[in-house]
Design brief:
By secondary structure, the protein is an all-alpha fold. The protein is globular, with a radius of gyration of 14 Å. Helix 1 packs antiparallel against helix 2 and helix 1 crosses helix 4. It has 4 helices and no strands. Keywords: Phosphopantetheine, Phosphoprotein. InterPro entries: ACP-like_sf, PKS_PP-bd, PP-bd_ACP, Ppantetheine_attach_site. This is Acyl carrier protein. It holds the Pfam family PP-binding.
Length: 97
């Protein structure tokens, strides 16, 4: 699937699968409104999830604290979808944004 065609539900599914894999639980058993910490995810697991969602969602250089600022699948998937659908500001004459 082209990442520009991903819906919010697609992003949520990818994220839930990545979190579930790191947490060692089936994705179907993951409560998307529960904090990542309730599944035992530490900073190393958060980094692994971050790398997975960067690849799956076509994003790069996600803020390191994104998972802590959005501590559930529900809130993070919305933040990721918004990042994926943000149109960068046009460059100025000197090349800056």
């Amino acid at each position: 699937m082209n990442t520009t065609d991903m819906t919010l539900d697609d992003v949520k599914r990818v994220l839930a699968q990545a979190v579930a894999a790191e947490a060692g639980v089936p994705a179907a058993d993951l409560a998307t409104d529960q904090p990542f910490t309730s599944y035992g995810l530490d900073s190393m697991a958060a980094l692994a999830v971050g790398m997975e969602i960067e690849d799956a969602c076509g994003l790069s250089d996600l803020p390191v604290d994104l998972l802590w600022d959005h501590p559930t699948v529900d809130s993070l998937s919305e933040a990721l979808w918004n990042l994926m659908n943000t149109v960068p500001a046009p460059a100025t004459a000197d090349g800056r944004r």
